[in-house]
Amino acid sequence: MSPDLDPTDRRILSVLQKEGRISNADLAARINLSASACHRRVQRLEEAGFIAAYVALLDPRRLGRTTTVFVEITLSGQGDATLDAFEKAVRAIPEVLECHLMAGSADYLLKVLAADTDDFARIHRQHLARLPGVAQMQSSFALRVVLQSTALPV
């Protein structure tokens, strides 16, 4: 927990994570502050970097993206040039939602969103199989979402 946050800041962050479009007046009422004090606190939290961005979370099913695939990638080497080339190339694939450098059996873990298995085959063929430095790739298809959240514990 960050020592820079008091309980009121934590309540503000908690509400904003779940209701990013809440008006300042409603937020102030919810956390028992005046509108001006609430606005100042939110601005301070933004400036301090606690609030990184405001976004709209889209429903992937409504957009025809119903298949989530986790792809473990092992590279042929660990040199800076290999890692940099891989990371630059993976950033250019729009279907890759997340890419994590890992410690463990794989070097990278990717979260890929596709319309279906045929679409994933296309993504694999056109993008993933062409990533630089890849020695091995293993894909696992998610069957259903058990828990999904963007809210961090504050």
UniProtKB/TrEMBL annotation:
Q: Which SMART domains match?
A: HTH_ASNC
GO CC terms for this protein? cytosol
PROSITE patterns reported in the protein's UniProt record: HTH_ASNC_1 (PS00519), HTH_ASNC_2 (PS50956)
- Give the record's GO biological process terms: regulation of DNA-templated transcription; response to amino acid
Q: Which GO terms describe its molecular function?
A: sequence-specific DNA binding
Signal peptide residue numbers: none
Q: Is the keyword Calcium in the record?
A: no
Q: Which Gene3D superfamilies does the record associate with it? A: 3.30.70.920, Winged helix-like DNA-binding domain superfamily/Winged helix DNA-binding domain
- Its recorded name reads Transcriptional regulator, AsnC family
**What superkingdom does the record give?**
Bacteria
- List the keywords (alphabetical): DNA-binding, Transcription, Transcription regulation
Q: Which residues form the HTH asnC-type domain?
A: 5-66
